[in-house]
Amino acid sequence: LFHELVVKPMKLRARLSEQGIKGPPPTMLFGNIREIKKAQSAVVRDPSPSSTHNCAALLFPFLQKWRKQYSEVFMFSLGNTQILFVNQPDAVKEITTCTSLALGKPSYQQKEFGTLLGQGILTSNGALWAHQRKILAPELYMDKVKGMIDHIFESTFTVLKSWKTQIEAEGGLADIKIDEYMRSFSGDVISRACFGSSYCKGEEIFLKLRALQETMSKKSLSTGVPGMRYLPTKSNREAWALEKEIRDLILQVVKERKMAAYEEDLLQMLVEGAKNSYLSQEATELFVVDNCKNIYLAGYETTAVSATWCLMLLAANQEWQHIVRKEVLEISRGRTLDADMLRKMKQLTMVIQESLRLYPPVAVVSREALEDMKFGEILVPKGVNIWLLVLALHTDPEIWGKEAYTFDPNRFAKGIAGACKLPQVYMPFGVGPRMCLGQNLALVELKLVIALLLSNFSFSLSPNYTHSPVLRLVIEPENGVHLLVKKL
Ligand code: HEM
């Protein structure tokens, strides 16, 4: 234990420091956690909707401070985990283009989110990860996603119907907090993709997973302290009970499946994949349960919060709302939207890209060097974690120009390559071999829900909206997004 908590971190820091890499001095056990919390609580927020889109300064004030103090490459400590922060463009390029499996997912994530994710695709490494990716990837290819469009329509219609009813009840203009609607939309889509015809059961599972996720996020940075996750604290006990309920529910669906007709959904692929791997009964169950949980976590909140931010930005920028609505109506001409029409909606794509630039749900892309690795001049010793702060890279004025914090979808008129000096820093869906598997599905979902909402309603920001992005598991609006919605 002494070696893990004291000797190993000191050795790693010494190897980084030999290369001239500096950073704030850590304290025993806590590393820099106290300083991080202090910087976060000192942030002054401007709640007016017109306040700047500089989320990096709001959510990671400590990183902004250390960047100025120690340069664009520095080290700090979360508990006994050593982090190398990299924001220097050449080094970022080397890391984002690295395809070696030795650059894996951090083991602290595995420990911290173990209850939530088990050993599924999101946090596993090496052969286990490669096996899981091989099974899941084909299920999310574009041709499969096209086959999900009908389901996505059904999920969107539920939102449209509720908004219409609410608007009528409130005399033609309703003040709607849209977050929960976007969540149930995204949850509904993912339930159907995962669980096919058993999607009602899927929704029950996902509600419990959401509760588990909330319990986990309450623990936040405190889990940087080694050993905390094993203690029978109130939130740990809650998390363990929910974990068991979720596992039992998923296995019940699998059992019912064995007696029913063949389904072509993600759950079926996982069951088949586990069967073909000749795993033990227990390992098969774990494989299926963990990956269902992983897909849910990866695809639910991320898509919901992206749709929410995008609608907030469209409400705040009426000219773009008109441009995109016009495009949607011109391309659809009263017909049912299909994948081909969505592909042609260029202005809509630009708005989504810009929204994901300013509010990428995943704020940090992190990796662990599973062996000693070299990126340009930097030698990263085995066991060190690398952090790329997506938020800062997405809004760096050196890369995006002096209007980097302004919402301007036009910057994507010539695609990502034309939008900035270093296109590899645009990474809302991550980078390299671990890039998001659900990107196609997410983009089709976002395009469809926004296109349908724009063709049915006009919206503006409600006086009840306060602008306050916070970092929970994803970057989300602290008090939700309130819109004034009118039927067209
Ligand atoms: C707008 C919505 C979404 C965003 C912004 C997003 C973003 C990301 C990011 C940043 C990563 C990590 C990549 C890295 O570490 O380099 C990731 C991984 C992943 N995402 Fe998404 N995602 C979204 C939607 C989805 C959906 C809908 C699904 C599935 C249904 C999904 C499935 C996955 C999976 C399975 C991984 C793990 C890939 C691996 O480790 O091999 N995502 N996503």
TrEMBL record:
<dbReference type="GO" id="GO:0004497">
    <property type="term" value="F:monooxygenase activity"/>
</dbReference>
<dbReference type="InterPro" id="IPR017972">
    <property type="entry name" value="Cyt_P450_CS"/>
</dbReference>
<keyword id="KW-1133">Transmembrane helix</keyword>
<keyword id="KW-0408">Iron</keyword>
<protein>
    <submittedName>
        <fullName>CYP714C2 protein</fullName>
    </submittedName>
</protein>
<feature type="binding site" description="axial binding residue">
    <location>
        <position position="436"/>
    </location>
    <ligand>
        <name>heme</name>
    </ligand>
</feature>
<keyword id="KW-0732">Signal</keyword>
<keyword id="KW-0349">Heme</keyword>
<dbReference type="GO" id="GO:0005506">
    <property type="term" value="F:iron ion binding"/>
</dbReference>
<dbReference type="GO" id="GO:0016020">
    <property type="term" value="C:membrane"/>
</dbReference>
<dbReference type="GO" id="GO:0020037">
    <property type="term" value="F:heme binding"/>
</dbReference>
<keyword id="KW-0560">Oxidoreductase</keyword>
<keyword id="KW-0503">Monooxygenase</keyword>
<dbReference type="GO" id="GO:0016705">
    <property type="term" value="F:oxidoreductase activity, acting on paired donors, with incorporation or reduction of molecular oxygen"/>
</dbReference>
<keyword id="KW-0812">Transmembrane</keyword>
<dbReference type="InterPro" id="IPR002401">
    <property type="entry name" value="Cyt_P450_E_grp-I"/>
</dbReference>
<keyword id="KW-0472">Membrane</keyword>
<dbReference type="InterPro" id="IPR050665">
    <property type="entry name" value="Cytochrome_P450_Monooxygen"/>
</dbReference>
<comment type="similarity">
    <text>Belongs to the cytochrome P450 family.</text>
</comment>
<dbReference type="InterPro" id="IPR036396">
    <property type="entry name" value="Cyt_P450_sf"/>
</dbReference>
<dbReference type="Pfam" id="PF00067">
    <property type="entry name" value="p450"/>
</dbReference>
<keyword id="KW-0479">Metal-binding</keyword>
<dbReference type="InterPro" id="IPR001128">
    <property type="entry name" value="Cyt_P450"/>
</dbReference>
